[in-house]
Amino acid sequence: MHKQNDKRKGKSRIKHSNANTRLPESSTIAIRELLSSWDGQGSFSVSYLQEQYLSKFCSPDLVPPGLRRSAAISKWLQTEKVNRHTNLVIRGRDRGYNILPRVSWYAFLGFAQRIIESVLGPLSNEVVVGSFSGGASTSRRRASSSSAEKFVGQADLTGAASPYVDLIHREVPLLRQLGIFYDLREVIGAELFTVPKKTDIDRCACKEPDINMYLQKGVGDHIRRRLRRFGINLNDQSVNRRLAHSGSLDDSLATLDLSSASDTITISCVEALLPRNWFLYLNDIRSQYVWVDGRYHRTDMFSSMGNGFTFELESLIFYALMRATSYFENCRGVISVYGDDLIIPSGMADSAIWVLSQFGFTVNESKSFSTGPFRESCGGHYHLGEDVTPFYLKRPAERLTDLIRVANQLRRWAFADPARQYELPFLYNVWKQLADLVPRDLWGGYDYSVDTQLVAPTAPRNVLVRVQESKDLPDLGLYSVWHNSYWNRSSAAQPSSRPTSTSNFCRRRRAKRGAPACRDFFHEELV
After folding, report:
1. Residues 237 and 296 in one domain
2. Number of domains in the chain
3. Which of 60, 87, 156, 517 could form a disulfide with 209 if both were Cys (CB 3.0 to 4.6 A apart)?
């Protein structure tokens, strides 16, 4: 009897169609050429959106994935050659060298070192208690790389990181009692892979060994917490966006963006700036070798994307260098850092760019602004105070959710700034062309960030819901994740529910009533 019921259920699942339907080729072409015929009549916001819309578009028809990957790896290897030179220069630099007028290398380093030492504080044993992300590691592919799965079974680590496993067990005794981190495999280092970035090139990142990743996350979390005491909140990008907006109005602040910032943090730079005990610990838990196309490469960079402390470490270094530059240049003003997105007083921009170059960093001139009416930081783009932040088509639009996403982002862009009111008639016509391809029962949304319901001023009826399936995760791993998260908290907490995975398979569901209304285009037709 049970078998018959199971068969019926299986048949019903097979018959259930995917509401996230495929788009006809004509629609995919229309979405790609969405803005090509738009005459903005000299509007900066319009021309900027047209310029940016396809700047990150990746398609095999334009540049094959293999060529994008090869270009990324070639750039990574070339960056390593530059890093090798930077290491030699910094290590051999005379302490009397003037990095700024009448400011010796020795004096500048000393000031920056004191800032970093103040942020980091003492190196205590509890910094080894880290966590896992959901990314792939050297032992696990992305599909089986949840935090719970990383806590059980085999775990990779480098030889230099192996002594800290006992320290983890002493800090979190339950992990030792549960037998966590005992099935270990020593590996030489990390593994390089690439992800889509722009039309012609991918972005390089590294899969770290499991234990190294865990330890790195402990350091990253520590730096993130400590930076908040100094006014740098790495959990909030809105600070930099707000400052970029101000800079576009009064020219008081500059926005700097660095090229390949994480890949140009060199060993000598970190060694020169960090307290000795912190440097030695970070050096032990990083991957000193990276597997690149069939062989291990000994890195001259200190850490790359994929390392659990890279983002926080680069934020700390840039904060210290900018603070030191501000002090010696006697230039007061706001300094805000979010990774390699820097906000500094415009008056010290030239000095800051020079100082950064002395530590091996290169400012991306096309995305850095110290004069003029434009500023960009943390995804916010502003021109004379107008929010001109573009949206992007990053891949070919193939399904209904891709269409809804573009239509919603176009609508959000239309109402992002009052200065866009003269473009609204044209924008409505473009939006309407897209909206007419969306079934009317999926109209009525209000959240511009979703791709499962079209934002429109009408009563919502249905919404697309992605099918979620609970992953069969090990109970021991789930419990270890929970305990590791609350090991030093005074208040108890309940273990979280099992994670779910999503796909492009969607079903229609009844939408909730009473949602907030969206802004209307002038004379917009209501349904």
Report:
1. yes
2. 2
3. 156
Distance CA 13, CA 11 (A): 5
Residues 177 and 124 in one domain: yes
Our measurement of the distance from residue 503's CA atom to the centroid of its chain's CA atoms, rounded to an integer in Å, reads: 21
Structure tokens at 423: 């473009």
- Three-class secondary structure of residue 443 per DSSP: strand
Residue 318 near residue 340, CB atoms below 8 Å: yes
DSSP 337-388: EETTEEEEEGGGHHHHHHHHHHTT--B-GGG-BSSSSEEEETTEEEETTEE-
- Asked whether residue 61 is domain-assigned, the answer is no
Residues 80 and 218 in one domain: yes
Query: Is 491 within a domain?
Result: no
Could you tell me which residues come within 8 angstroms of residue 235 by beta carbon, excluding any fewer than 6 positions away?
A: 224
Specify whether 468 is located in the same domain as 412. yes
d(CA 138, CA 355): 36
**Domain edge (last residue) among 358, 387, 416:** 387
DSSP 397: -
420, part of any domain = yes
Yes or no: say if 312 and 219 are a contact pair by the CB < 8 Å rule.
yes
Same domain, 426 and 345: no
Residues 343 and 470 in one domain: no
**φ/ψ (deg, to 5) at 137:** -125, 180
Q: Which helix (H) or strand (E) holds 249?
A: helix 238-250
pLDDT tops 90 at residue 484: no
Apex CA 8: angle with CA 5 and CA 10, to 5°?
110
399 & 350 share domain = no
Per-residue pLDDT reduced to its tens digit, 369-389 = 999 999 999 999 999 999 999
Six token digits for residue 47: 């021309």
User: Please, which residues have CB within 8 angstroms of residue 342's CB and are 6 or more apart in sequence?
Assistant: 255, 256, 257, 258, 318, 322, 335, 336, 352
Residue 143 has pLDDT above 80, yes or no: no
The answer to whether 188 and 158 are in contact (CB under 8 A) is yes
In a domain, 233, yes or no: yes
DSSP 482: H
Q: What is the separation of C-alpha 285 from the centre of its chain, rounded to a whole number of angstroms?
A: 22
465 contacts 506 by C-beta, under 8 angstroms: yes
- What's phi and psi for 199, nearest 5 deg? -60, -40
What pLDDT sits at residue 496?
45
Minimum mean pLDDT range among 8-22, 80-94, 109-123 = 8-22
Report angle CA 382, 385, 388 to the nearest 5 degrees: 35
pLDDT tens digit sequence for 195-238? 998 889 999 999 999 999 999 999 999 999 999 999 999 999 99
Please give the Cα distance from 412 to 523 (Å, whole number): 17
Strands 289-292 vs 190-196: parallel, antiparallel or unpaired: parallel
How much is the pTM? 0.90
Contact 338, 243 (CB under 8 A): no
Query: Residue 50: helix, strand or coil by DSSP?
Result: helix
Which residues form the domain of 421?
16-53+395-486+496-510
Structure tokens at 92: 């051999």
**Structure confidence by residue, pLDDT tens digits, 292-339:** 999 999 999 999 889 999 999 999 999 999 999 999 999 999 999 999
